[in-house]
Design brief:
The complex is a heterodimer of chains A (364) and B (374).
Chain A: E1 5-8, E2 11-14, H1 15-27, H2 46-60, H3 63-66, E3 72-76, E4 79-88, E5 94-95, E6 98-99, H4 100-114, E7 117-129, H5 134-151, E8 154-163, E9 171-181, E10 193-196, H6 202-210, H7 228-237, E11 242-247, H8 252-264, E12 267-271, H9 279-288, E13 301-305, H10 310-319, E14 327-333, E15 340-343, E16 349-351
Helix pairs in contact in A: 4-5, 4-7, 7-10
Chain B: H1 10-23, E1 30-36, H2 37-46, E2 56-63, H3 71-81, E3 86-90, H4 104-109, E4 113-116, H5 120-129, E5 134-139, H6 146-159, E6 164-168, H7 173-182, E7 190-193, H8 195-201, H9 207-211, E8 217-219, H10 224-239, E9 245-247, H11 259-268, E10 269-271, E11 274-277, E12 281-284, E13 288-290, H12 299-302, H13 318-323, H14 354-361, H15 366-373
Parallel strand pairs in B: 1-2, 1-7, 3-4, 3-5, 5-6, 7-8, 8-9
Antiparallel strand pairs in B: 10-13, 11-12
Helix pairs in contact in B: 1-10, 2-14, 6-11
The chains are: A alpha+beta (364), B alpha/beta (374).
Pfam family, one (chain A): AIRS
Family (chain A): Belongs to the HypE family.
Organism (chain A): Actinomadura livida
């Protein structure tokens, strides 16, 4: 710090002091200021975190929940189980590369898989809008069945509710899943390598284009896929050296990296040129003025491994079709704690913060 | 990717940076204002300041369209949006901008039908598909977006679409620059001119800046090398004692602008006697309104609008930030009471806003970031 002083009226402020003040303000417990839920609360960014802290954690407080992990690990009669749930409200219901059915299976399978569990059984709850075509429902359940088979899980229980026309958007699905828990995550340490299992942002951009609101066409499909086999291979190839795995869903890779940095009290430094992004995703993001780092994936995970295991993990990923374009994108450092820094392709640096809500397209 | 990667080449950036350093007079401090919010975004997104010597500072100007919308106008827009038969349509980054009583997002949560669009023509399509509703487009932006609003109104008139109107908040850049130049507490050495605005108005209108005020101006593109080259051109002018309008963004900006775009603005809109800018106060002839012939498409004629004025929050120093008098972090509430989650001033809302850009991309001192990324 240069210690440059700036005189502002009668107050002399030093940048360093201001920044410290900001860090203190940031570390304070989040306060929910809104009286009503807005869309930002569902974006996976800061607003979602605030809602979880202020409402759900406040009400349900317990040690399992405190971890705020992708799934809870529970010991039942000596058996370690992983348990998770997720709801799916995607619009449109059908899109290139998949539909709400695959998402509902793969998303829950992935939440179990990244937490170090072998997914076993899923439940499926349907909230259907009056008038929803049975043919569409069949299409969705068929794709759920295929996805479950591909992931090696069974859908063993379920529920159906129908709401009046206008009270839902066709079909919403909730799935919960249980799996056998193996390794719990290990502590992330400075020096660890950060990998991503494939090109980022494909699901989010596919959905944006499938909504038909933009006159952009691209040869793109959602990346929705079950990651349990791929991640199991990484674990086998790197015994004891896989620290953490997270699937990058809404909020994208940037959000997951922020959560990792914040949990570990360490910095994550990412090399922008190493982050795999397909040209169609990059092009759409450039046009819309959004950053692919924040765009949702549904079949990509971020993996942190010990430095000596980076090559083995990468090789294991690339041997699998779902990991063919995997890459080492960065490294964990000790300072500044809790922050994600990006070394830009241009040769500069910037901070990659959590977004408040969904990325908003810029005007010009 | 063509037309992108060649403007982000790190080798070229290093060469330019060396040349920039060699043009700087030792001991002299340089302050350049980038007028346009798009430039602010580029500067932080790519980390351009890493290439600049310590004695060059970039000051973020008033060219972020959502940052300069006064709170009263946001309240008026929400008032329109809250009418039962109205669909309000808006660009995305307007959604989070706070008025005196919440933002579009809050109004949407309270039941207003507010939809994000990517172009005013999308809003017109919504009007065609919903003939029993009144569809309003929230028209914001500088000369960059005003032509598309004008074209949309002309199309609505040609096709006789009667349920469409625009809440016109379009502003013009030159009076704002003039207000900044006239502000007594300012010391600037030159301007990085707004590239997209200049595609419409061209480069000639800036000559009063270089002539009357003696400040060089370089119209710049939005890729990082564009900005570095523009800084280089400004320094070269200063070193040679010149003060001229130069066009770095020649691949997009014609010297005389876009006659057709100017014509449609002129055909449908006229300057307002005065308009309030957030943080800067009232500036005369700094905004556009519809001509009387287009009153049927003017939401201010179609709707009964309260038109109240909401004073900027006392603690907010957006005005000083927009004028470049304060760096974002020097504002009293920066990063504590005013954050991207709870913006007090609009500079904190849009990613183009100086404060949000600084908060998101550059919260830590450069030295610490450099150390961490070494």
């Amino acid at each position: 710090m240069t210690g440059r002083d700036t005189v502002t009226g009668r107050v002399t402020i030093r940048e360093e002091q201001v920044l410290e003040r900001i860090e203190r303000a940031r570390s304070r417990k989040a306060r929910l200021r809104e009286d009503a839920i807005t869309l930002a609360h569902g974006s996976g960014g800061k607003a979602t975190h605030t809602l979880i802290e202020a409402v759900f954690r406040e009400a349900f407080d317990n040690p399992h929940l405190d971890r705020l992990d992708d799934s809870a690990h529970l010991t039942v009669n000596g058996t370690r189980l992983a348990f998770t749930t997720d709801s799916y409200v995607v619009s449109p219901l059908f899109f290139p590369g998949g539909d709400i059915g695959d998402l509902a299976v793969n998303g829950t399978v992935n939440d179990l898989a990244v937490s170090g569990a072998t997914p076993l059984h899923l439940s499926a709850g349907f909230i259907l809008e009056e008038g929803f075509p049975v043919a569409d429902l069949r299409r969705i359940t068929e794709s759920m069945s295929r996805a479950a088979e591909a992931a090696g899980v069974d859908i063993v229980t379920g529920d159906t509710k129908v709401v009046e026309r206008g009270k839902a958007d066709g079909c919403y699905i909730n799935t919960a899943g249980v799996g056998l828990a193996h390794a719990a995550g290990a502590e992330v340490r400075p020096g660890d390598a950060v990998l991503v299992t494939g090109p980022i942002g494909e699901h989010g951009v596919t959905i944006m284009l499938a909504r038909g609101e933009l006159d952009i066409e691209a040869d793109l499909a959602s990346d929705t896929a079950p990651l349990n086999c791929l991640l199991a291979e990484v674990r086998d190839a790197c015994p004891g050296t896989v620290r953490r795995m997270r699937d990058a869903t809404r909020g994208g890779v940037a959000t997951v990296l922020n959560e990792l940095a914040s949990d570990a009290g360490a910095a994550v430094v990412v090399d922008e040129s190493a982050v795999p992004v397909r040209p169609a995703v990059r092009g759409a993001c450039e046009l819309l003025g959004i950053d692919p780092m924040y765009v949702a994936c549904e079949g990509r995970a971020v993996i942190v491994v010990a430095p000596e295991a980076a090559d083995a993990a990468l090789a294991a990923l690339r041997r699998h079709p779902l990991g063919a374009d995997a890459a080492v994108i960065g490294q964990v450092r000790d300072d500044p704690p809790g922050l994600v820094l990006l070394k830009t392709v241009f040769g500069g640096t910037r901070i990659v913060d959590l977004l408040v809500g969904d990325p908003l397209p810029r005007i010009c | 990717m063509r037309f992108v990667d060649e403007y982000r080449d790190a080798d070229k950036a290093r060469t330019l940076a060396a040349s920039i350093a060699s043009l700087c007079e030792p001991g002299r401090q340089y302050k350049f204002m980038e007028v346009c919010g798009g430039h602010t975004h580029t500067i932080y997104k790519h980390g351009i300041e890493d290439y600049l010597p310590e004695n060059i500072s970039l000051v973020h100007g008033p060219g972020c369209p959502v940052c300069v919308i006064p709170m009263g106008r946001v309240d008026d827009a929400i008032h329109i949006a809250s009418q039962p038969d109205v669909i309000m349509t808006s660009f995305g980054d307007m959604m989070r901008v706070p008025g005196g009583d919440g933002s579009f997002f809050d109004a949407k949560a309270a039941g207003a039908d507010i939809r994000m669009v990517y172009s005013p023509l999308d809003a017109l399509k919504i009007a065609q598909r919903n003939p029993d509703r009144r569809v309003v487009f929230m028209g914001i932006g500088f000369e960059t977006t005003a032509p598309s609003t004008a074209m949309t109104v002309l199309r609505a008139a040609a096709q006789g679409i009667g349920n469409f109107s625009v809440f016109n908040n379009h502003v013009t850049i030159l009076p704002a620059i003039k207000a900044i130049l006239d502000s007594p507490d300012l010391r600037l050495d030159g301007f990085i001119g707004p590239g997209h605005v200049s595609t419409v108005i061209g480069c000639r209108p800036y000559s009063f800046i270089t002539g009357d005020y003696g400040k060089p101006l370089v119209v710049a593109g939005f890729e990082p090398l564009d900005l570095l080259q523009s800084v280089h051109m400004l320094l070269a002018q200063l070193a040679a004692g010149r003060s001229e309008v130069e066009n770095q963004y020649g691949r997009v900006v014609p010297w005389d602008g876009n006659a057709k775009a100017l014509q449609v603005i002129g055909q449908t809109m006229e300057p307002r006697p005065y308009f309030e800018w957030r943080g800067l106060g009232f500036i005369s002839h700094s905004a556009l309104r519809f001509r009387d012939e287009y009153a049927a498409y003017d939401a201010e004629s179609v709707f009964d609008i309260p038109g109240g004025r909401v004073a900027d929050p006392k603690a907010c120093q957006c005005g000083e930030v927009l004028k470049g008098v304060l760096k974002p972090w020097e504002c009293k509430v920066f990063g504590t009471a005013c954050t991207p989650e709870t913006p007090i001033g609009t500079c904190m809302v849009s990613s183009e806003g100086a404060c949000a850009a600084y908060y998101n991309f550059g919260r830590f001192t450069r030295e610490r970031v450099k150390e961490a990324t070494r």
